[in-house]
Each structure stands twice: as C-alpha cells, then as structure tokens.
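Subgroup meeting minutes
Present: P.N., E.W., G.H.
Scribe: E.W.

1. P.N. recapped why we're keeping a running log of single-chain structure predictions: easier to compare across weeks, and new members can see raw inputs and outputs side by side.
2. G.H. added today's entry (337 aa).
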Amino acid sequence: MRPDTPAENVDHTAEAARLERTADLYPEDAEALLLRAAAHRELSGDRPAATALYDRLLASDAALDQPFLVRALKASNLWEYGHEAEARAIITGIRSAAPRDPAPWVIVAEALESHDELEQAHETFTQAVHLLLRDGTAPPRPAHPLLFGRHRVRRMLGAAHDEWDALADTVHSLPITLDELHDPKRVWSLGSENPAELEAEIVRLRAELGAFREALSRPFPVAVLHWSAAELAELTEAYPDLAREYPSYDAHLATIEAALRELASSGTANLGIVTGTVPSYEAFAASELSSPADATLLPQYATTLAARGRAVAWPPERSAACWCGSGRTYGDCHGAG
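Output recorded in log:
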C-alpha cells in the first residue's frame, strides 16, 4: 500500500494478509512486516487478530529489535476491546523497564490519555521526557511527540507552562501554535454556528492532518541503496559489470549523500537509506528471473528492502551516528558539507 492511498480505498484485511505472507517469506523482516500487518488488523476492526500478531512476535525465538514497542502496541490495542487490566499491567511494566526509545512511551501515554487517565498520561510523558532528553541539547526528532503529548495533556489539565512546554513550542513547526492546537475549548467551536470560528477550526484540523500524514508516511521512504565496504567489494568481485556503477567505495558513499540532498532540495519527503547484502541481492535477482549483474535491478532491490521495513530515515540528527558506519557523528561525517 502506498502511503498516499486514501484509507477508504484500502482493504485492510487483504493488506494484512499480504504482509503476513511476506513475513513468512522473509522471517528476518518479520518484526517490521507483522507490526504493519497488526496495524491493518486494528484498522479493519479485528483487534483480537492484531493481538495474536503481537503475541506471535513476543513469543518468537528471534530477538526483537523493538520489544517494548511491540508490548506498547499490544497494550494500546487490548484496552480498545475491553482488556483494560491486562493493558494497564503491560503499561506498568514498560514504565518500570524505562526503555530508551521514545516510541513505546508515546504509545502508552496516549493510550492512557485516550481513556481519560490524564494524570497518569502526564506522569508517563514527564517520566519519558526526564529520562530521554538532556537539558541544553536539541531534542532528536523521534522525541518530539513526547514534548507535544505532554504539552497537550498539560493544557487539558489546566497546568501552567513550564520549561519543557517552552521547548515543545520551539521545535513545533506547524503554522498553528501548540497552544491553539491543544486548546481544550476547541471542541466547542465544532458546534458553533459562527462561520469564522468554523473556518478557523478547519485551518487547525488541516495543520494537524498534515502532521499525521507526515508521521504515517515515514515507514515508506524513498530509499537509496547502500553497501558496506566488505559487501561492495564482494559484489563487484562477483559481478565485475557492476563496477561501472560503483567505481570506488568512497565514491559510492558520496553519491548516496549527494543523491539524497538533491532529492530533498527538490521537495521529496520521507527519504531513507537501505543497506544491501550480496546473498540478499542474489536471492532478489533470482526471484526476478534475472542476473545480479543487471544494474537495473539495483533500484528495484532498494525499493523491495524499503517495503520490508529495512529503511533508515535520512538525514540523521547531526549528533547521531552517520549512516555510513564510520563511527563518527553525521555532523562530523557526511553531514558536514
């Protein structure tokens, strides 16, 4: 499913089944694929089936990349169809474990918020903010929803702005301010007969919708293919014709950064990098009934890896590790230009 496909045109049950079949074919990508399948199950209204997928991941012998994210999604889903006690127990466990990834915190805090547990939601957002954000440093993009969610809940509780709310204001980029977006009185304007109030609310809703669309589209980036030094050497040794595409490893890395910057400057959003391996590429070529030496397969291979959840968003934060694997920060490596 493309990220811009209207929701009403999606057969969520069929899409979930397709992703589950793909997970069976590519067990190394099962986590990303089954999480997307579970989301489609939830959207189709089959929440027990979604829970079954979360349980399948949690019971797997393979180590999960994001075990707390899976648990958080399971808790949120369980609460939606009457399993409140189990959901609360999972949320308590996640808070006690204090994961270093913002995503599970956002999910469990929003689950509490959506069920009018505002004080607990505020405590959860605040616990995460103190754990994951450092004073005096710019918050990484994945942590922004923590600041925004905390700001929203505090507005509903009638709490005065504090330093974290001020930080949320500084990283907020939409034309509508956070105070307007999170105003508890907004709901009143939806029933207003005043055209000016209704028009203002439409503007606010459009701003929010834009933010939601951006967030939802991130797992489906326009991806550029990257090879590690060892994999690229093996690839060009096995298939010398591809040396024309990759004259050197340094040139390969420079080409990736230049291509992504060009795409970004042209307005292309949701950019990412996928890292290939020779065995995986050979298997892909075989599935296409083609030779791995065929350079036209390379962009198709990149798209396939992205569809399997293998893409890493670009650009990284300047203080984060560079995508090339050099061990330096992005700002001191390929982001220095």
